[in-house]
Amino acid sequence: MVIIVSRKRLARAAVVLFAALLLAGSGCFFYYQSAAANANKAQQDDFIKWVDFNVTYQALDYSIKLDMEYRDSQTPVSFISLLAYLAAKNGNNFKRFKTSQLDAVMEQIKSGKTIEELAAGLKYYDYYLEAYTAALSGLVGWYEIEVKDQSSQSGKRWERRYGIKAFSPIAKGFYYNHYDDFGTGRSYGFKRRHLGHDMMGSVGTPIIAVEGGTVEALGWNQYGGWRIGIRSRDGKRYYYYAHLRKDFPFNKSLKIGSTVKPGDVIGYMGRSGYSLNENTNNIRQTHLHIGLQLIFDESQKECNSEIWIDIYPIILLLHRNRSEVVRNPDTKEYSRVYDIREIIED
Known about the structure:
CATH architecture of the largest domain: Distorted Sandwich
Number of strands: 17
Number of helices: 8
Order of helices and strands: HHHHHHHEEEEEEEEEEEEEEHEEE
Radius of gyration: 23 Å
CATH class of the largest domain: Mainly Beta
Shape: globular
Number of domains: 3
Structural class: alpha+beta
């Protein structure tokens, strides 16, 4: 039997084969499977390949409240451990979350059980614990922050606290509106999913570093326009702030390699991007695009298998923690009013 294959089909097959070999050589593969399938894959390989981050604002908010409430008790528990337990228990479905679910877990912990004992029979607990630790470990912890104190000469004093230490990406006192738009379609350049979150506001609105880290990207990108990329101190999170203001996009002190603290002013909202020509406004609506990439291995940093998660529930949580800023009339720059010192725990 003779099988005749057209030259056009052979050419397409060759392109597919070449692309597959190229990706294989770079160690970069694209996975978009169920959380369970990727959990199995993560057990075989050295690092996690995909994260379906379905945690709701309600679950995130209540687990943090319990973390803070029991921090100094005989039964402290991490909010990340609580969320990982719930995810393993409910099959990563948080749509029916109720606070009573976490209350029941805390009752067992107060009776002497540990979260590890409760999760012992749950197959994917370790997977969710690692995934959520990568996504959320910069949100809560010990820190020192300046607060108003009229009795002191400076008008401020330092206060040690435990709780939410990350900040909303929009400065205090500046209006914005938003909705959960992660995964919606985009067509500029090529059809793709929106792997970030858009926050609509006004040109010049100060943009705030969500958490501390190192500036890894600073400059022009045809899709994001003027953009800043900041890597968290533990290397697991990469925050991407895009479409910054034309002509005056960044805090002038920043450069690649600069260190920022949570709450620092890093740039200004605009509508730049969608152009190969630098410093061009081709975005119709003024807004900040903020994305959160998880990195378990450096091969995932710029690759066809990048892991971007829906940051919307985190942004909802951080609305309560917004950095107060002041404008310098000479430089036109904004800066934070109250400084912060992070306490890094081993």
